[in-house]
Automatic annotation (TrEMBL):
Phylogenetic classification of the source organism: Bacteria, Pseudomonadati, Pseudomonadota, Alphaproteobacteria, Rhodobacterales
UniProt xrefs under Pfam families: SLBB_2
Gene source species: Donghicola tyrosinivorans
Protein name: SLBB domain-containing protein
Residue span(s) of domain SLBB: 2-75, 84-164
GO molecular function, one term: polysaccharide transmembrane transporter activity
Length: 203
């Protein structure tokens, strides 16, 4: 099998006995500091699957300690190679590279061309964040207060989806209904966004 990406010693690993994921990670020396764990993927039998390395190592989800197989390929991307996604009422909704220094919400919106029109509801900018392949978070920020200097800009994480609505929305269900078609287009292809139903609203 192969470990590719942000591992200490990436490359082939020869399995001479039953080996689980934790043991496999030990064989390649663990992960680099800039590995983006929620974006890790397992290629098995020509199918791409999620593998929750974050949950296993950070949250003790030992059900994610899968048995490895001889033809498996596990890939862990770098945070620097990831993107955030700016959608909704912006001039050029698209993927924005996260970069070495990271991004804030307003920086990402600016890179995407800024707000599309004056009627944009900057008070209710929505952010969908993936914490692992099985869990996520819904975050509401007040862009108007950020632009007025009344609060600090909001730091993003790789894979975040930033949605700028045109009108006030009653609840997250309305926001997700608007975002879902685009999420389905990018889910599992270029970003580790999880299924919407697995997300939990931030308190």
């Amino acid at each position: 099998m192969y470990f590719l990406g942000e591992f200490r010693t990436p490359g082939p690993v020869y399995l001479s006995r039953d080996t689980d994921l934790v043991e496999g990670l030990a064989l390649v020396g663990g992960l680099e500091a800039d590995a983006y764990l929620p974006g890790a993927r397992l290629l098995r039998n020509n199918q791409i699957c999620t593998v929750d390395i974050y949950g296993l190592l950070k949250a003790g989800k030992f059900d994610q300690n899968i048995q490895l197989r001889g033809q498996d390929v596990i890939y862990a991307p770098s945070r620097d190679d990831m993107s955030v996604y700016v959608l909704g009422n912006v001039a050029g909704g698209r993927a924005v590279p996260f970069g070495v220094n990271g991004l804030t919400a307003m920086e990402a919106i600016t890179v995407a061309g800024g707000f599309a029109r004056d009627r944009v509801n900057t008070k209710e900018i929505r952010i969908i964040r993936t914490e692992s392949p099985t869990e996520g978070e819904l975050i509401l920020i007040n862009g108007r207060e950020i632009l007025a200097g009344e609060m600090l800009d909001f730091p993003l994480e790789p894979g975040d989806v930033v949605y700028v609505p045109e009108h006030p929305m009653d609840n997250w269900n309305a926001a997700l209904t608007a975002i879902l078609p685009t999420l389905q287009m990018i889910d599992g292809i270029v970003t580790p966004i999880t299924l919407v139903r697995s997300l939990t609203q931030a308190q």
